[in-house]
Amino acid sequence: MLSAAGALARRGILVRRLDALEALAGIDTVVFDKTGTLTSDVMVLGQIRVRAGLDAQQAVAMASALARHSLHPASRALVEAAGPANNGWLASGVVEHHGLGLSALVYPDGVAGQTLPLRLGSAKFCGVPATDAAVMQVFLSDDKHWLATFELEEDIRADARETVTALKACGLNVCLLSGDVVAAAQRVASRVGIEAFKGQCSPQDKLDFLRDCQLQGHKVAVVGDGLNDGPILAAAHASFAFGQAVPLTQAQADFLVAGSRLTDIAGALLLARRTLAVVRQNLWWAAIYNAVCVPLAVLGMLPAWLAGIGMASSSLLVVLNALRLTQTRPWQREN
Q1: Domain with CATH 3.40.1110.10 in the chain
Q2: Catalytic residue positions?
Q3: What residue intervals traverse the membrane (predicted)?
Q4: What is the pLDDT of residue 286?
C-alpha cells in the first residue's frame, strides 16, 4: 500500500487514506460532477439579459457583490466580469445555500440604509421559470421580480473524453450528475461519451442517487470539486477532489489530485487494482512458505541457519514484489 501511495504521490495524487486504495480497486461505477470537473474551472460571462429599466453593467455589479462570497466557478466569472472596483456595491448577511445559490442584502457603498434583498443562483432558487438552454445560466432576482440572467460559457477539459473512454475500457459504469439544467448536462455528457446523466440535482439528489447505487450492490467512486459535492464525496466508497477544489470538498475526499489531469483518475484506479493483486500475491506466498517451512523447522528437518536465510529471502521477495508498483506508470495498463 505504501509503495502504491508513493507512486501516486510522485504523479501528484495524495492518498489521504491507505484503505481507500483497497476500496478503489473494487469500484464498478464512477460518478462525475460537471462544472469544474469535466469542464474547465474557468468560466467566461457571455450574454446578459436584464429587466427593463436595469442596466447590464449595474446588474453584473450587483450580482458580483454576492458572488465575491462564493468559490463556485460561476461566481468567480461574475466577479471577474465586474472588475476589482465592483462599481461600489456591497453585500451583507450573505448566506450560501448549497447547490442553489446565494442570498444577501445588497446596497451601494456608503448608502447602507438603502438595501435590496437579492438572490443569485438557479432558476428555482430565484423563483424564475426554468429554461432548456444548453448553456449554464445564473439568475438574479429581488424579493419580488426577476432582475437578470447571466449566460456562462464553459469549456470541456481536453482529456475528459479520453478519461471516460479509459474508465469504460476498465469495465466501469460512468455517470454525470449536475446541478445545472438538463440540457446543459446533456450537452457535456454527449461530448465526453457519458450515456447516464442527470441535471438539476441538489446535493440531496446526488446523495440519493449514490445511495440507490449502493443499495443495488454497486461500488461507487465520486469525482467532484464544489461545496455541494461534499456529502456525496463523504458517502462514496472512494472519492477524488482536485487541488483547486474548495477546502471542505478536499477534506471529504480520499484522493487529492494536485494537477488538473482527469486521466489521473483512471491511472489511480489501474494502480489500485494492481496493488490489490500484489497484496494477494504476497499473502499467498507467505501462507505457502509458512505452511511448508514451519512444520519442517518444528520437526528438526530444517537447520536453523537455513530457516533464517529462508525467512530473510521470503521477506526480501515480498518487498521486491511490492516495489514493482513503483516501476510501472500507474496510468498505463499492464500487458
Answers
A1: 44-153
A2: 33
A3: 305-323
A4: 74
Average pLDDT over residues 5-28: 85
**Residues with Cβ < 8 Å from 307, sequence gap 6 or more?**
293, 297
Q: What is the pLDDT of residue 301?
A: 74
Show contacts of 65-71: CB within 8 Å, 24+ apart. Answer: 65/89, 65/90, 65/91, 65/104, 65/106, 66/91, 66/94, 66/102, 66/103, 66/104, 66/106, 66/118, 66/120, 67/102, 67/120, 69/94, 69/96, 69/102, 69/104, 70/96, 70/102, 71/227, 71/246
Report which residue type is found at 248. Answer: L
Place of cell 514493482: 324
* Separation between Cα atoms, residue 304 and residue 168, nearest integer Å: 53
Task: Please give the share of the chain, as a percent, with pLDDT higher than 70.
Answer: 87
pLDDT-wise least confident of 19-33, 36-50, 62-76, 291-305: 291-305
Q: Are 239 and 223 in contact (CB under 8 A)?
A: yes
For the domain covering 44-153, report its CATH number.
Answer: 3.40.1110.10
Report, as an integer, the average pLDDT of 33-58: 87
Question: Average pLDDT, stretch 241-247?
Answer: 74
Q: What is the mean pLDDT of the chain?
A: 83
Task: Report CA torsion sign: 159, 43, 260, 188.
Answer: negative
Q: Which of 318, 316, 296 is nearest to 307 (CA)?
A: 296
- The whole-angstrom separation of Cα 125 and Cα 288 is 63
Q: CA–CA distance from 299 to each of 55, 143, 227, 296, 302 (Å)?
A: 94, 87, 64, 5, 8
Task: Residue 122: name the closest of 58, 169, 72, 83 by CA.
Answer: 72
pLDDT at position 333 over 50: no
The boundaries of every CATH 3.40.50.1000 domain in the chain are 1-35+159-335
Distance CA 7, CA 271 (A): 9
- Name the fold adopted by 1-35+159-335: Rossmann fold (3.40.50)
